[in-house]
Every structure is written in C-alpha cells, then in structure tokens.
Write a structure and sequence with these properties.
The protein is of the alpha/beta class. It has eight helices and eleven strands. β1, α1 and β2 form a beta-alpha-beta unit. α5 packs across α6 and α7 crosses α8.
Length: 306
C-alpha cells in the first residue's frame, strides 16, 4: 500500500492534535504530504446568516491556528496544507478516501463498554470510507512498541497484513500476527471431550491460517521479526488486549471482496468501540477500473488555506 498523503480531520481538540502529530511522523517516513481539513458543520445553516458568518470566521481562525502549529512541528521536507469545508464532518472527510490516502482522526473513546460509543465519529468515518483510516487515541505513550495485525483470509485481511509488515519494517519493530479460534456461536456438545476436540480443531485451523500469513509477511518484508498468536477470546476483545502496549494495530474492515461504504464488519466495530491503541482500518483493494474526474471531488464546499 503506497500512502502518498495523510488527510487529518482537525477541530481544535486534544485528540485531533494527537492525530496531527501522528500523521506528520508517518508522513516523514513515507515522504508523503499532510493535509489538515476542518469541516464547519452545516447544521448551523438553520440559525440565521449572521451566526453562520460568525461560525465560518471561527472555523477559519481555528484552521489557521492548527495549520501554524502543525507547520511549526513538521520536519523539513513534510508539506502541510489546510482546507476549510462546510458540510457533515465525517461525510465530508470520507469523501477524501482513496487507496493512496490515509484519513486520520483522533478519538477520546478508549476502554468504553459495549454500546456506549456507537455515536463515535471515528466509527462513522471508518464505516463510510473505502480507503485506509487511522484512529488515534488522545493518550500518547513513547513506550509503545510493535505492530499487531488481525489475520483472516479475506482481501481486506491480506491488505492489512501487507501494510502491517511494511510498517513493522519502517519502524524496525516486531510484527505480531493474531488469529482468534473463538466463534460467536458456542459449539453444543454432549461431552466435555467433544468440546475439547472441537476447540483443538479450531486452534489447528487458526495456526494454519497464521502460518500462511507469516509466509506472506516474510515474503514481503524478509528482514522483520514476526510472532504469531492463537487466542481463544472473541476477535475484537483479543486484538485490543494484545495491542494495548503496541504502537499500532492494523485490521481489515470486513469479509467483503471489495471496498463498500457502510461495509464495516463486526470485528472492526468491536475493536473501534473499545480502541486501546492507534488503530488503522484497511479496506479491500479497489478493483481496477477507469475513474472519472468527478469521482475525486470531495463533498461539501471548499476553501484552501495556505
């Protein structure tokens, strides 16, 4: 996956600034550009033109401040630009989604119980996008180390594995491949030995899939250190637990064969509901096809800044 640009949603919050720092650091590694996008929510349209003007002025000032801060911290060679848009924030950001662009947003939703974070904007963005999305918690730690990847046999899972291997190589760190042998529906058995045999078969299937994943990752990045783990907990819970001290968790979006808006799978939902580390959601590669210029026009009104 050749990421050439990082598009960061900014709103002046602490999580958004953590997302900007993360994007700048990764842009430097990949010689990529960074674009800060602030979306003035168009729901203000119902409150009168005078207040709309005030909101627009405030949005412009906020973007100017975030852009100045980002440029001051960016190393030489990393281009940082800004753009002001109007519309529904996550819908507008999702319209920037491309295979070669990574959308980046911050989140303060960490360690929440199931069901409490369904309104999370980062979840909404991952669900709407068709290219990679990075969700960055506001709590940063320089002690984080390693890249964790969830393994499955789908196109999105393979794309996630490839990106995770590249990132482990870039960061000179270990790659940990994780596969759950748990099923959502419990196996019904009359005897304990039947249940034990069923679980052992599930474990063997998971190991076989992990072995193929390790072979693929080694072929792509021969120099990296790779560990594999079979876990018996549900996939979303297990991935967050394993990645709690990792610098990155990489997951595929779903079991679909091609990217699809609204196509986020249940494992990705579980991970993002209780995100514990910087997490990248990777969608299945887009099929090769001719693209029209209109397909590259993001939604909402635009105002370039600096």
């Amino acid at each position: 996956m050749n990421i050439r640009e990082f598009v960061v949603g900014v709103d002046g919050s602490v999580p958004a600034r953590a997302a900007v720092r993360w994007a700048i650091a990764h842009a430097r590694e990949r010689a990529a550009a960074v674009s800060l996008v602030h979306v003035a929510d168009d729901e203000w349209g119902a409150v009168g033109s005078r207040l709309i003007d005030e909101v627009d002025a405030g949005a412009g000032a906020l973007l100017d401040e975030e852009l100045a801060n980002a440029r001051a911290s960016a190393p030489a060679g990393v281009s940082v630009t800004g753009e002001l848009r109007t519309g529904s924030p996550m819908v507008v950001l999702a319209s920037y989604s491309r295979p070669e662009r990574m959308l980046v947003v911050g989140t303060h939703k960490t360690g929440f119980h199931y069901g409490r974070a369904f309104g999370s904007r980062s979840l909404q963005l991952a669900n709407l996008a068709t290219g990679p999305v990075a969700i960055i918690p506001e709590a940063e730690s320089r002690l984080r180390r390693g890249v964790v990847v969830g393994v499955d046999d789908t196109a999105a899972g393979n794309a996630a594995l490839d990106l995770a291997a590249d990132l482990a190589c870039d960061h000179h760190c270990e790659l940990v491949a994780v596969r759950s042998s748990s099923l959502q529906q419990r196996f019904e058995a009359d005897r304990d030995d039947e249940l034990r045999d069923w679980q052992l078969r599930r474990d063997d299937d998971a190991r076989e899939l992990l072995a193929a994943a390790v072979t693929r990752a080694r072929r792509r990045q021969p120099g990296i250190t790779i560990r594999s783990r079979v876990v018996r907990r549900t996939p979303g819970t297990a991935l967050n637990e394993v990645a709690r001290a990792a610098e990155l968790l990489v997951i595929g979006d779903s079991r679909r064969e091609a990217p699809e808006r609204g196509g986020l799978g249940s494992v990705a939902y579980d991970v993002l509901l209780n995100v514990s580390s910087p997490t990248i959601v990777v969608h299945a590669p887009e099929p090769l096809r001719a693209e029209t210029p209109a397909a590259h026009q993001p939604e909402g009104e635009a105002h370039a800044v600096g």
